## 1
Amino acid sequence: MCYILCKYKQLQYVIIVHMLFGLQLRQRMCAFVFNVIKKKFFSPSHFNLQPMAVRPENFTMRNLVRVAFLLVACSVSQICASFSFNTKDLVLLVNDSTTLTLTLTDNVLRNTTLILSTNHKDLLTTNVTKIEVTNSTGTNVWPVELFGHDAGHDLLKVDAFPPSIKCSDAFVRVTLQHSNELALFSVIVGWVYFVAWSISFYPQMYENWRRKSVVGLNFDFIALNLVGFILYSMFNVGLWIPEIEKDYISRNPRGLNPVQLNDIFFSIHAVFATLITVIQCYCYEKGDQQVSRTAKSIMSFYGLIIAVLLVLVYLQKIVWLDFLYYCSYIKLTITLIKYIPQAVMNYKRKSTIGWSIGNIFLDFTGGILSILQMIINAYNYNDWASVFGDPTKFGLGLLSVIFDILFFLQHYVFYSGVNYAEFENYNEVEVEDEVTNSEEHPKPTDKSDDQIC
């Protein structure tokens, strides 16, 4: 090889061309190199290998570097070839079929066997499971037919043997469903409860503005709600940061970013809406209400956890993606407990005055529709494990609905006849008492002696 490079010094430029130009040109240049070697040094007239005898002067550093670069050029040309499908995501009906296209981006220099496989043979099968690729094959596109047998989620992937060709992009996420109509209905239901939850903040703000008072609205609920939505926004926005999203994809190479644009909008909108309610708590009549010591202790504990996590991120013990996951777990615990202070406060006051029932109607609507969507998707995709196998999401939605039902009972059954709330040091109660007493027992009017006459 050193003799070849000494005699044909122009071959040293092959690696430069190989690195600077496109895949096809690099492949042609490498083929040219092999043809030159074959014709000039391995033809019958060159079987006499005396000219290629080992000579000390051929083993110079320059020649060795040239040999190394030539070998790298040939290997990189092989690695640059890759396979990919014409789509990454596919929706297929049960008992239906479709055809995909598997494309080779470059010719290969050695015979390669492609193995097509799925994770669940009972859900999805292909018409071919093996494709032989040779250097002499001029076809760079292969049709692959898929057959759906049952509803669910599956993954079609391609592996190359020997593994010298890039196949990391040769996969398709397949969703098999019973009905397109059910899928459309699920999308509509999703948007309806998204709107219901988004506008559920405004009835309470309107109630506060109308009464010019926040008496009856529990401050622990507002404080926990604000912290929870801030953490939820951090998680949603964080997964759209390129570096963090890259970490997520590296952990889930064939998955999708779970955060959609509407998730970011909802969480940020919820933070601003809750902040407006907090401002109302400072501006309007509030009596002696304040955040309780219990709520302050809980939020301090959450703050300590977040501070420790930030230190771990700084020390590179965990990455930002792990930090966001822990923030989402804290948000889940807040969702579990945030309604309790308001329900207890209503019970102590024996009244729901100041607590907007419109907020509860919208929250109840969103919760019921979210559970309905989960059930529709579970049937349509045969994915009941998402409902009962992972109880977190379903349980939180169900718990929210249960609290809404409790608030309905408090408002319309338990305390429906209460016109005012007996709660100490509430100025609003004193004002309502004075108005009621003045209407029932009007005070005598002081008149002068002239008026009496």
## 2
Amino acid sequence: MKMCPTCTTNNVDDAAKCERCGYVFPVPKRTYNYPKDIITHSEDHSPSMRAKAAMILGVTGMISVFFVVFCAPIPGIIAILLGNRELKALKKAPYSSKGETYANIGVWGGWISTTIGLLMIGLGTTVTFWFYNWFKETFIY
């Protein structure tokens, strides 16, 4: 119950003015106290070069896996190493999350490109040996 300061009449809690004298109750200003989010309110600095390099190498490895089979695992492995190094550095600085997304993209992109590249190398080697043996049996003997 809200009590009117002028006539001391009890009013309902959500009343805008007093029922008896018409006194207008002041509207309290709401203050919002949200907890500080670590991710959105982190330190103001850009992602590290290691995180950016890991992301670029991971994406480059995924794109190049279809064009250059033998070179695809190389940037992928470098992306995995750089991304993991950056993620370890970010764990030591708990309030700094800048670059974590880049590092994760680099690590996962590196794993994907390395796996696909190695599978394609294995497939290419198998097909090459099969074709070589077929050619040898068909035309040489």
